[in-house]
Amino acid sequence: MDSIKRAEDLKNILERLHRGDELSDVKKEFREKFGTASAAEIAQAENRLISEGLPPEEIKNLCDIHADLFTGSIKHDNDGNSAGSDEGHPLSVFREDNRELSGYINERLMPAAVNYFGDKSDKNRESLLEVLRVLYKNLDIHYSVKENLIFPYLEKGGVTAPPKVMWGVDDEIRQMIKNLSEKLTEGSLIKEDLGQTVEKIKSMITKETEILTPLLLHHLKEEDWVTVGSQIPEIGFSFSEGIEGTSPSDVRNWVRRNSMNLNGIPLIEKKEKDTHGEGEIILPSGKMNIKQLERMLNTLPSDITFVGADGRVAYFSEAKERVFPRTRTIIGRKVEDCHPPKSLSAVESLIEDFKTGKKDSENFWIQRGGKFILIRYYAVRSDEGEYMGVLEVTEDISGIKNLEGNKTLAD
Predict the structure, then answer these.
(1) What are phi and psi of 372, to 5 degrees?
(2) Which of 232, 230, 94, 92 is nearest to 166 (CA)?
(3) How far apart are CA 123 and CA 139, in angstroms?
(4) DSSP reduced 3-state for 307
(5) Could you say which of 6, 305, 358, 393 is the most buried, measured as most Cβ atoms within 10 Å of its Cβ?
(6) β-strands 387-396, 371-381 pairing
């Protein structure tokens, strides 16, 4: 079967699932026609479905059915199990996270749940709540590394459907864990709620192992992994943090060992040099050199991100304390790929309003962890009114929200 016909046939098989055909019948056709399929072929088929108008949300809703269809039939490269397994490699960290996550579910979450459902005392409730808190914290970090550091490289390689679908499921899992904690606090948690959440988490582990990992091995080059490794601390470490071979120091050492390109030039240092020039910038209201401009922008109390008229991230400031994580892998990323699917329509609508001149700015705010976060968007236009892009300004205003009276330099 030639590759073009194979791709079309695989897409048609997935379409049968979305029409509501029985999984057993579709699986039988898949086994008869294909036997096995690579992760790249599955990603390509999902890409084609989205490009032909199928909403990513619908693929997300059938994500587990897709996984069930391909279980045991995904073709791996011969070296797929060993690549990226050396100590400190970001992929080894990612894999160890999932092994530790599975262990945490079996050794901590399930015993705590058994204790609670056997005796719904305050002590057992608090114990289960703490286990869920740790689970959420670590899963959020693990998923954030995937969404903000890894997905940009797949998108650059033309793999767009799996990232969109996985991000949507990640957010669904995040919300399911939050719901468990809320129901547990209210005393309305039932075993089925917990069981569904655990199955969803385990299913994502399978997807990351069977589909995502082969795609990463195919699309990311060594220098990409070096960048990922150098940026992981910006987001944080998850379950594997204290494990020998995948700790922060192991990752730092791996980056140091592998940051030399073919010419012997350190990749990280070269990028730093390229982006820290001393050239002078002349502006209508003054001038400064590049270093001064960089430090000035990074000293602002707000995080700023600029998306150009082409819809791609062009710049973000790098203050020591950021409200939301930003990593250098997002430079050049399409703005719609920087947001979870549930926010996509709102993002697209806002940008369209800026482009047409319907709006010049928009404000949003959220309260999280005792912080009051203000997020402001501004349309950037030329003197002639031509749309040049969007500026996002984010700031934790908890400390100034309730200011009263006066404080001046004269006081």
Answers:
(1) -110, 110
(2) 94
(3) 24
(4) strand
(5) 305
(6) antiparallel
